[in-house]
UniProtKB/TrEMBL annotation:
Belongs to the ThrE exporter (TC 2.A.79) family. GO terms for molecular function: transmembrane transporter activity. It is found in: Cell membrane. The chain crosses the membrane at residues 146-165, 172-192, 198-219, 268-292, 299-318, 324-343, 350-371, 383-406. It comes from Brachybacterium alimentarium. This is Threonine/serine exporter family protein. Residues 439-492 are annotated as: Disordered. Its main location: membrane. InterPro entries: ThrE-like_N (IPR010619), ThrE_2 (IPR024528), ThrE_Dicarb/AminoAcid_Exp (IPR050539).
Length: 492
């Protein structure tokens, strides 16, 4: 397709900025690729190939068989947890695709997002994670002293991690220092009152430190075939977890030397009697995590709702019917379903609600038990840690499956033109000159064409699900796409 060079650069600049923004804020590789392809497609570009790795987005455009490919590579910045920015990037994407935003305006907005001051200042972010730590302790039936200690310890470890990050210290060391601080706080609680279960402080801090890791996106990439990106994210999660383990083990060695007992005892309850505490703690963890990750205040109640439902499912099913790994997988499945529905209705990223829902499911107590047993019985401690890893994979797999199912069913009931649902599919899906539908069938019948040309190289890697495409029909490209579109080819 003949394309003006200036406009081609502008389209690629917009696509690269949004792709980098989504990747930096934790979106899965399939979602990043699908979004970039939507942008190039809505601009009238065909023969575009997108490849996403752990820290890079690569876009290549081939105008025709005799032309030299136009390729751009953009490296992603350090990972952050800012769902307000993630929402802003998705808003720009959908506004541009729908024709509400001109190309230059979309570029200007995408460029300004990283420079936009956060909605919540650092003290409020620290307070949010501190509340989350206290709520996590409450979910284990902790008393006032332990809840207060967990709240303060969680706030301190988040503040120390933020300080180290601003000093360009690798996050591995921040995790290690946070683990040591958690054990130190538990030791202080044990010295103040030896009769309380001070180990809950450590467990709560472990939950706070692990909640932001990219395990969901890593498992989503792995189960959908994006193995390179999945390997990088899994290794990142593993190294940060090892950093936490190093800090906790160091604190435990100090506690043993001082003769302080912070072992896990049977006061961590799993029964229906604690349902009220689970509800309160779920609300606290959802709101605390939302504030800490810059979730808009209007969305906080919905995030708290998802976290509470997830916690209740896990708690009740574990206590009555199934082993914990199956209970958390079921809770993750429901979380994925709810996340897609709420994301589409509220026009917010699905990842926001997924991360909020999995917070009460993090196996903090199993990790701590495993670390305690490693000093006495390596095989028993390893078994506990393996069980924690099994639960983590079950949570992520359940959440991904829930999103997959909901994203396949929801388009039949959607009333809006553009979906905020995730695109979860294999990178080897080949599109043969089909068209990407932005709206439901009823919208197309009522309002006329709502289609754009898909951009891909036949046989190259893409990330768009076959369910998102219709058979070739003779429609014009969107009104906001300037330039002359290529003639459609026959579908084999």
């Amino acid at each position: 397709m003949p394309t003006d060079s200036v406009r081609l650069h502008a389209v690629f600049d917009l696509a690269m900025r949004i792709g980098e923004g989504l990747l930096t804020n934790g979106a899965a590789a399939s979602e990043v690729t699908a979004t970039v392809l939507r942008i190039t497609s809505s601009s009238g570009l065909r023969n575009v190939s997108v490849q996403v790795t752990f820290d890079e987005v690569v876009i290549s455009y081939l105008a025709d068989e005799t032309s030299t490919p136009f390729t751009r590579v953009r490296s992603a910045a350090a990972r952050v947890q800012d769902f307000a920015r993630l929402s802003a990037f998705e808003d720009i994407t959908h506004g541009y695709i729908a024709g509400d935003l001109p190309l230059e305006e979309a570029r200007r907005m995408a460029e300004s997002i990283p420079r936009t001051p956060p909605a919540y200042k650092l003290p409020l972010v620290v307070l949010g994670f501190a509340v989350m730590g206290g709520a996590a302790a409450l979910s284990f039936g902790a008393g006032t002293l332990v809840v207060l200690a967990a709240t303060v310890a969680a706030g301190f470890l988040i503040a120390s991690g933020e300080l180290l990050g601003r000093k360009q210290i690798p996050p591995f060391y921040g995790q290690a220092i946070g683990g040591f601080l958690a054990v130190a706080a538990a030791m202080l609680v044990s010295l103040i009152n030896p009769n309380v279960n001070s180990s809950i402080v450590v467990v709560s801090c472990i939950i706070v430190q692990l909640c932001g890791l990219s395990s969901i996106a890593a498992v989503q990439d792995a189960v959908t075939g994006w193995y390179v990106t999945a390997a990088g994210r899994i290794l990142e999660t593993l190294m940060l977890t090892i950093g936490l383990v190093v800090g906790v083990r160091g604190g435990m060695l100090l506690a043993d030397g001082l003769g302080v007992d912070i072992s896990v005892n049977e006061s961590i309850p799993i029964s229906l009697i604690t349902i009220a505490w689970v509800v309160v703690s779920g609300i606290g963890m959802g709101i605390g995590f939302g504030v800490g990750t810059q979730v808009p205040w209007r969305v906080l109640p919905w995030m708290a709702l998802v976290a509470t439902i997830s916690a209740l499912i896990s708690h009740v099913v574990t206590g009555l019917l199934l082993e914990r790994v199956y209970a958390v997988t079921l809770a993750g499945l429901v979380t994925g379903l709810l996340a897609v529905v709420l994301g589409d209705r509220l026009r917010r990223p699905t990842l926001l609600f997924v991360m909020g829902g999995i917070i009460p499911l993090v196996p903090g107590s199993l990790i701590y038990r495993g670390l305690l047993l490693l000093g006495e019985d390596v095989s028993a401690g390893g078994a506990q840690l393996f069980g924690a890893a099994e639960i983590a994979i079950g949570i992520a797999a359940g959440a991904v499956l829930g999103q997959l199912l909901a994203s396949r069913v929801l388009p039949y009931f959607r009333r809006s033109e553009i979906a905020y649902t995730p695109s979860i599919s294999s990178p080897f899906t080949t599109m043969r000159r089909r068209r990407l539908s932005l709206g439901s069938r009823s919208l197309r019948r009522r309002n006329g064409p709502q289609l754009v040309e898909p951009s891909t190289m036949t046989g190259e890697m893409t990330a768009l699900s076959p369910a998102m495409f219709d058979e070739l029909e003779d429609f014009d490209p969107p009104a906001h796409a300037t330039g002359t579109a290529a003639d459609p080819e026959e579908t084999p």
